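Quick illustration, no need to memorize.
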Amino acid sequence: MEEEAAKMLGAGIAMLGCIGPGIGIGILGSGAMQALGRNPEARGPIMTNMLIAIGLCEAVAIYCLVIGILLSMA
C-alpha cells in the first residue's frame, strides 16, 4: 500500500513541471497579441515564431506527462 502511495505521489510531483510551460505559453500568447496590435502587417513572422515557441514549451509539458504516467504504472 505504501508503494502505491509513493508512486502516485511521485506522479503528482512530476506533473508540477507543467506549471512552467503553462505560464510560458500564456506569456508568449500575450506578447504575440501585443505585437500584432502594434504592427498588424508583421502577422506572418510573429505567428510563426509564436507557434514554434509554444510547441517547444508544450514539449516540456508532454515530457512531464509521460514521466507522470510512467511513474504511476511502474
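The chain has one domain: 2-73.
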